Amino acid sequence: MLVVEGLSKRFGGFLAVDRISFEVRQGEILGLIGPNGSGKTTTFNLIAGNLRPTAGSIRLDGAEIGGLPAYAICHRGIARTFQIPRPFHKLSLLENVALAAFYGEMKGISRAEAERRARQALDLVGLPSDPSTRTAGLGAAALKKLELARALATRPRLLLADESLGGLDAAEMEQAADLLGSLRSRMGITIIWVEHIMGVLMRIVDRVIVLDHGEKIFEGAPAQAAVDPRVVEVYLGKT
Ligand SMILES: Nc1ncnc2c1ncn2[C@@H]1O[C@H](COP(=O)(O)OP(=O)(O)O)[C@@H](O)[C@H]1O
Ligand SMILES: [Mg+2]
Predict the structure, then answer these.
(1) Tens of pLDDT along 34-88?
(2) What gap in Å lies between CA 143 and CA 158, rounded to an integer?
(3) Cys-Cys crosslink for 153: which of 67, 103, 121, 224, Cβ 3.0 to 4.6 Å?
(4) CA 189 to chain CA centroid, nearest Å
(5) Domains of the chain: which residue ranges?
């Protein structure tokens, strides 16, 4: 579905993503892990059109999408969540997600249709979809769910989930991981899932890619990653 080849991103003299290549198959959940600063979010920014690649190619169903603007990539069926949720605090949850539904629809839709899609997305993640609930007082887990609902309201075929477990307690992490798993099984959404810790991600993903200093250092089964000498070194330091 997605083929990334030789993808690089340079910020001044610093190479944040260094010639990485990987593929994502239709219907799979691919884990993308690595320590803080290893280039995970930058990779998402490149795929989602928030940054232009310095080099390399990104093909979706065979068509080059590298360097297209974010809205064009969204219209082709890729949605991303942001690591740090920044909802519109003056709007209701429903309005926040309805805005995403408008953004995701190339043809233009009525407000009623946008709200219908928003309610569907909010129901899926388990957040209230009444017109009055606002973001004030929402905890980390609810804010992460809102990020997911905003992405889902654009009706993606490929979802890029950035640190969906950040700031959650153990029970909330399990719930969030199960939710991502069910998006694939119930809706057929293909997922790339970024986390900096291995944790519960490893139970859900089909394959895992490990980044370190912008380079891909491992690709394979989760069980193999956990015993790979380079991966162990990156996570635990040299022994
Ligand atoms: N817009 C930017 N300008 C300059 N440096 C950046 C920018 N975005 C990210 N970086 C740097 O690139 C590296 C990778 O960042 P990031 O992709 O956010 O890592 P991760 O998501 O794996 O924690 C970090 O060293 C970060 O400081
Ligand atoms: Mg990040």
Answers:
(1) 999 999 999 999 999 999 999 999 999 999 999 999 999 999 999 999 999 999 9
(2) 21
(3) 121
(4) 12
(5) 1-77+156-171+181-239, 85-153
